[in-house]
Amino acid sequence: MGTDRCACRSRLRWVDPVPKLWLSLAGLLVCVFADSAAVGGFTLLVFSVLNLLLGGHTLRILTRFFAVPMGFLAIGCGMIAFRPLAQAQALWALGNSGWGISRQGLLLAWMVLCKALGALAAVYFFSMNTLITDLTWALSRLRVPGLLVELMELIYRFLFLLREEAARIQVAQKSRLGYQSIPQSLRSAGMLAGMVLLRALRRGDRVYTALESRGYTGQIATLPGTYTTGRWCYPAAAAIAVSQGLILLAERGSWI
Question: Do 80 and 167 have their domain in common?
Answer without folding.
Answer: no
